[in-house]
């Protein structure tokens, strides 16, 4: 099977999607984006074209669940493969409005699968999450570890994986790779693309960025009594450009896969654990100032430690992250400095 040339990227204006579009364009793919901008700005798409020095092959503002509109995108473009990022991703929100989360994340995926089947598109890379592992053990997680998702967001990702596995069993041409990312942070080195959450950030890196630029007074460190070396929770932070490259490699590998293979699942992480206080210190080094923080109680639902065993993807594809924590912090900070109001200015 030949390598895909035209790739449909759902959620291509979002954080990980936009970086992946840049990497795909840099490697001669034609890229078509579908996004409803429920959590992104159309300006991200302008920035993608600016970095790449050439335009996207198509931009379609629509909701994946609008099946007729989605199907027209497949009619208009000769799509070879799909990278499916579009989903809601806020854990707390998913607890508050679970129906909307299942509808968007699972319903968006089934609508996409129907359109792919109608148009005989048989290659799909799916955005899954380390959150499917739930309450992890105190050791790096392999893909064989059981899924024990603990909130509607994580359960929606796990449900999508199960739907995809079932559809692969039934539709023998379909090849699906599900990538479970750990904690993507960082930004494009140009400073033109990065993470631009709406409202007060919930995740640690965008929050740190706003403390460092003075818009928020201090970081609340959630929990200092975890069974970890410094008592704060440990995560596997991975540069978003490494994640983006992982998708391109996945597209190359999926093109090699013989038809009829079952869905494969891979972790994308570094295998390196970093505590919240280590991240605060690394970010302080990157921005050249101490970042104030206060110790707080644990955040409900958090686990002490989530670190990937990423050896499967290294062995099978040769994918290894090349960017360390200092680079992740430097790139995030550059984006923040050049875009204090995100994509708004
Ligand atoms: P993001 O919110 O920045 O990007 C998602 C994009 O999808 C947004 O542009 C949004 O407008 C769009 N979208 C959402 N629902 C849509 C719909 N129904 N139709 C069309 N467009 C829709 O999120 P991200 O951080 O880039 O995450 C991308 C994917 O990776 C998500 O599936 C997320 O669950 C997964 N993931 C993210 C992380 C993380 O920490 N960022 C970790 C693991 C997995
Ligand atoms: C990281 C660490 C917090 C904010 C999330 C999703 C998960 C996956 C990855 C999508 C934790 C601590 C945070 C703050 C803090 N995403 N923290 N103060 O929770 O590991 O994972 O992103 O699939 O599903 O849940 O990421 O950035 O929110 O937190 O101390 O203001 O930072 O307690 O230990 P998390 P995060």
Automatic annotation (TrEMBL):
It holds the Pfam family GDP_Man_Dehyd. One of its GO terms (molecular function) is UDP-glucose 4-epimerase activity. It comes from the Bacteria. Its EC number is 5.1.3.2. Gene3D superfamilies: NAD(P)-binding Rossmann-like Domain, UDP-galactose 4-epimerase, domain 1. It catalyses: UDP-alpha-D-glucose = UDP-alpha-D-galactose. Pathway: Carbohydrate metabolism; galactose metabolism. Residues 8-331 form the NAD(P)-binding domain. Keywords: Carbohydrate metabolism, Isomerase, NAD. Homodimer. This is UDP-glucose 4-epimerase. It comes from Streptomyces phyllanthi.
């Amino acid at each position: 099977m030949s390598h895909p040339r035209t790739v449909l990227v759902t959620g291509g204006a979002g954080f990980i999607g936009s970086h992946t579009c840049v990497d795909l364009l840099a490697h001669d793919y034609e890229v078509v984006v579908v996004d409803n901008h429920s959590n992104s700005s159309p300006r991200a798409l302008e920035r993608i074209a600016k970095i790449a020095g050439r335009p996207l092959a198509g931009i379609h503002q629509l909701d994946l669940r609008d099946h007729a509109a989605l199907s027209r995108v497949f009619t208009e473009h000769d799509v070879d493969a799909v990278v499916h990022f579009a989903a809601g991703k806020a854990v707390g929100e998913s607890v508050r409005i679970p129906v909307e989360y299942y509808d968007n994340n699972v319903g968006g995926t089934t609508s996409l699968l129907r359109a792919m089947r109608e148009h005989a598109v048989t290659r799909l890379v799916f955005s899954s999450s380390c959150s499917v592992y739930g309450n992890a053990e105190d050791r790096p997680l392999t893909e064989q570890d059981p899924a024990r998702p603990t909130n509607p967001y994580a359960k929606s990702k796990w449900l999508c994986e199960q739907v995809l596995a079932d559809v692969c069993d039934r539709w023998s041409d379909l090849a699906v790779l599900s990538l479970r990312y750990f904690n993507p942070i960082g930004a494009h080195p140009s400073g033109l693309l990065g993470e631009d959450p709406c409202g007060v950030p919930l995740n640690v890196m965008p929050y740190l960025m706003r403390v460092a630029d003075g818009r928020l007074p201090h970081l609340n460190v959630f929990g200092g009594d975890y069974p970890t070396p410094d008592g704060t929770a440990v995560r596997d932070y991975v540069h978003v450009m490494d994640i983006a490259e992982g998708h391109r490699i996945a597209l190359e590998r999926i093109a090699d896969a013989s038809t009829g293979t079952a869905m494969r699942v891979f972790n994308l992480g570094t295998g390196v654990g970093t505590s919240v206080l280590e991240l605060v210190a690394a970010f302080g080094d990157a921005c050249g100032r101490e970042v104030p923080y206060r110790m707080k109680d644990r955040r409900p639902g958090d686990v002490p430690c989530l670190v990937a065993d990423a050896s499967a993807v290294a062995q099978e594809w040769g994918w290894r992250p090349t960017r360390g924590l200092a680079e992740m912090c430097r790139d995030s900070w550059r984006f923040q400095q050049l875009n204090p109001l995100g994509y708004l200015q």
